[in-house]
Amino acid sequence: MLSEKRGFAYDEINAAFAAGADDLVDAVERVAAVKAIRNTKNFGPLAASFKRIRNILEKSAGTLDKGQLNVQHELLWEPAERELYAAAQKIGEEATRRKKAGKYREALEVISELRPAVDQFFDKVLVMVEDQAVRKNRVTLLANLLKEFSTIADFSQLGSEELQESPQQKRAGK
């Protein structure tokens, strides 16, 4: 219905529901917010980074204790990881305020401001370092990032242009 009647892309719908949207009216608002900002300068690349984060977390599943989700500040060695941590704290507070007010589009726009810090992190920091404590801390940082910023929509569900259509739309040649 959301795809055929409202024109939302298949992956936009999946992203909202994967984040735990269980109220239909609320879910529609979340999907609309994703659709509105998905093609902005920062959001697309940030969604790709969230996919990368999810892949790293899947590959390092044994590295992270489910109970230990606190980043240890003393193990943030690289400037880029300290900057990402600080940006996530600041942006997370603002995004949470807007989300609680039901302003999903504004919250997603705030979240997209994370892009420079995330890009710099992946350019400058090796997550899977030899030092197990540092590795675990970096994986924890990424896990927290994914958890915190995937409450409106699971960005890793967003695909490329070709994945935006539903399987039914592809079969129909739309």
Helix and strand string, N-terminal first? HHHHHHHH
Query: Number of domains in the coordinates?
Result: 1
* Number of DSSP helical runs: 8
* DSSP strand count: 0
Radius of gyration, rounded? 17 Å
Outline the structure in words:
The protein is mainly alpha-helical. It has one domain. Helix content is 60%, strand content 0%. It has helices at residues 10-18, 24-37, 43-59, 79-100, 104-111, 115-124, 132-149, 167-172. α4 packs antiparallel against α6. The radius of gyration is 17 Å and the shape is elongated. The model is unreliable at 161-174 (pLDDT under 50).
Secondary structure layout:
Layout: H1 10-18, H2 24-37, H3 43-59, H4 79-100, H5 104-111, H6 115-124, H7 132-149, H8 167-172
What's a concise summary of this model?
The chain has 174 residues and is mostly helical.
Quickly list its features.
60% helix, disordered C terminus, 0% strand, 174 residues, elongated, mainly alpha
